[in-house]
Structure formats: structure tokens, C-alpha cells
Amino acid sequence: MRATPWLIAATLCLAGCGTSLAARETIRAAPGVVQQGYASYYSDRLAGRSTASGEPYAPSRLTAAHRSLPFGTRVEVRRVDTGARVEVRINDRGPFAGNQRIIDLSRAAAEAISMIRAGVVAVTVRVLSTPSSR
Question: What is the pTM of this model?
Fold first, then answer.
């Protein structure tokens, strides 16, 4: 079956009508947006391995992984039970263990909110700024 030029043109036009993933991420990442769920933290064994952004994972830096926030987004993570807070920069994708986990923290960030012993804690994540909002 032969495709006609108008069919190809119509298909290309329709393909351009969808919202890109980057645009959807930007909408969800507006400063002030809050998520509730659980946080876990990275194993020290991952030190030096590349994150999804290309940076090596450094346990001593205040960084985190999030499934959809743009790289470079700054968020405040607050422990629900103690109120302890830490500001981190998103530089990786995840977490991929458990549906209720919304963020994976570096060891330094996990220590800042005293969650090392617990391993997984209930948190709120509030977007402070995105790369496009600075």
C-alpha cells in the first residue's frame, strides 16, 4: 500500500500536537509544588558511578534522585515525623524500589535528616527552584 503525501503531512502535524516530556516535567516542577511519600538513600557502594545526569555519585554532596523532576531542580526534603529538613539538587533518576518512594537521597542528605538508621522515612518534597525558574 502506498502512503500519500497528505497522509504523511497529517501524521507529522499530529505528532507535533503532543506535549513533550520536558514540558510536562516543567509544569510539575513549578516552585512550591509538594509531594508526599517515602525517601530512601543511596548505598556508599555506588560512589563514583555515573548518575543519569552524567555526574559521578558523590555520597558527600547534597544530591538526590527523582523520577521526573528536571536535573538541577532544588528541593527541600522534610521528614514528616521529626520536621528535619535538607535542601538537595536533583541529579539522578529514581527511586525504582517501591511505588511509594518518591526520592533517593545521597548519604550526606540522609545524614542531615537523621534517616540512616531507619533507611526509609516518610517525607514531603517541596520544589524550591528549577533550572528554568532561576
Answer: 0.77
114-126: pLDDT as tens digits = 999 999 999 999 9
Give percent helix, percent strand, percent coil of the chain, each to the nearest 5: 25, 30, 45
Instruction: Give the helix/strand (H/E) hosting 15.
Output: helix 5-15
Q: Which CATH number fits the domain that encloses residue 31?
A: 2.40.40.10
User: Which residue, among 73, 128, 64, 119, has the nearest Cα to 93 in the 3D structure?
Assistant: 64
Range of the domain at 23: 5-133
CB atoms within 10 A of CB 76: 15
Write the single-letter amino acid at 20.
S
Total domains in the chain come to: 1
Tens digits of residue pLDDT in 19-58: 334 434 434 567 888 999 999 999 999 999 999 999 999 9
Rounded to whole angstroms, how far apart are CA atoms 37 and 19?
A: 27
Q: State yes or no: pLDDT of 102 exceeds 50.
A: yes
Nearest Cα to Cα of residue 77 among 25, 132, 120, 28: 120
